[in-house]
Amino acid sequence: MRRRRFAATVVASALAAGAGLFGACTADEAGEASGIGDVLAGARPAVAPFVGLGEARIAVGGRCRRVAIADADDERARGLMELTDLAPYDGMLFAWEGDTDSAFTMFQTDLTLDIAWYDSAGRPVDSARMVPCPERDLAKCPRYRSSGRYRYALEGAGGSLDAGALGACG
Questions:
Q1: 2-168: CATH superfamily
Q2: Does 32 have pLDDT greater than 70?
């Protein structure tokens, strides 16, 4: 229910602004593309290792990917901690209801990850390669920040994220 309310808020905000949310996938991948609100509203329950989260397919630069969705504070705080493999997912999409400048850390994360930050229209804001923090003290781990405010962040295995905007795919 929370995801549907969040998606409805995203869609309503975009309609009020008179703009579409995200660019489309290529026609052969997506048919008719819809916005990220539709993607989040259509999320289904995720499987291990993300039981309790939602999952969806989202296009990154026109390439469709299967992602787990972290759209609540506790889900975003947990992120990809303690995982040694993302399978069967390509990554995790972090979503906020409004723009944010929250930092990311690699505390208790043993995988090298790429992160890309996107604005409310799905346009890339920034990206970075994040390396595991050898410290077991959160205060000693580096913080990774976007150069600008963002609405969505996508983490994937190092070297796996495509450049380009977020979109919906079928």
A1: Protein of unknown function DUF192 (2.60.120.1140)
A2: no
